[in-house]
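Moderator note: this is an archived Q&A kept for reference. The question asked for a predicted structure of one protein chain; the sequence and the answer are reproduced below.
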Amino acid sequence: MKHLTLVVFFMCIAVSSFAQQPQGAPTRLFSSRTDNYDGTSFHPHDSAHYTYSGDRGGIGQYGQNEYLILFDLAHHLSASGTTWNDSLQTTKTYDANDRLLTLLSQIYDGSNWINSKREVHSWVTNNKREDTVSSYYWNGSKWEPTSKFIYNFDALGRVIEEFQEKGDTISGGWATAYWYLTHYNHFGDIDTQISQTMSWQSGAWQNLSMFVSIVDTVHELSSFLYSWSAGVWNKGSRDTFIYYADNGNSITVDSEFTWSSNQSTWTPYYLNTYVYDKDNRLVNSTKQSYNVNQQAWVKQLQQNTTYSPDNSAQQSILYLGDAGTNTWYPYSNTVWNINQSGLIVSEMDSSWQTLWVPATSHYYWYTENSGSGVKASPQVISSSVYPNPFTKTFTITFISKKEGDVMLKLYDMTGRLITKTMTNISVGENKIVWDAGFALPKGCYTYDLVVGNVISNGKIISE
């Protein structure tokens, strides 16, 4: 369900704008530092350093591709401002297939490292899909369970079941909590996704909510949220979407409604609008709420983003709505400086106090070197697809410089992940045959071939 607020976009703009890296770019963060403003000047506050396992790419938390971060260490500056003191460290372990197995977070108390949080990950046999994630916290003497997620997948790698268990502090074990069940249906050119949430109560599953998403060959058209009450599903909220005509993929209007049971009608709730420049970059986001009594839209949030001509800088100003006057007033201002590889090297945050007052600054350093001191080279250097257009199956041919694993990810034009598969590759020409088993909805799809980070991608058409 796409409840896209401007606060979310405030974070996502930076991520989306800097996500695509040139081949061979220094994509590994080596260290970072945050400085705070005291009214006169900036002073260092905290920093972090990261240790990697050579230049290998693996599968990390939530199935995301990442370089194998073995260890990261955070520091904070002493009150005197003269000494960096350890504060937090995180250690990760991986299996022989470079899949994340454990994560351990510890806090430094000035003398010793004290356990804080622990995660244990397990994976489907001979597959890159994560099936269980267990989390624990340290109570001072032992690990207490907090949450566990168990996943089941269909043949396309989509999650069809998710079980959530919560920690039982009395028994020290797990107690069943929630069951999320998802159905994927195809009706001609329409794809319907139904997600149902149930809770475990009095020894039985009880319905809680149901989310329905309706998608055509390219876009999500609308979504509905229902709640369970008195033995029936009751309407709760609805979203409808309009897309940017020039590229067809970006949302320009997201209208949210709530169901009025008294009037038996949909009532406007939120209106989100988005404006893009000629390069399809987001330049304005506006969120308004509907005042039922006044029957008028009330300003909530607005974000304006500008880009330098050479893409070396980006600025986003966030405005809040004044409920009394229904006008905008500035709230925060963020400026990013970007290097030639498209990576953020510094970030300056300011707040509005009749004028812009600096708040914090962040600095980032990267390394091009692998563990051996040699710049890491991408494994895949080219790829092609046949047939294109396709019906049920297609083959991707690509070149690899060395042996290893490569992951294929397939997305629809809404950016929704359709499937991901991992296979072993050899030096030279390789081929991956993908077979859906049935015809996908007609339309345009994109694929990524990834080894730690995206190194080759393209578009394919289903007919």
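Archived answer notes: The helical segments are 6-17.
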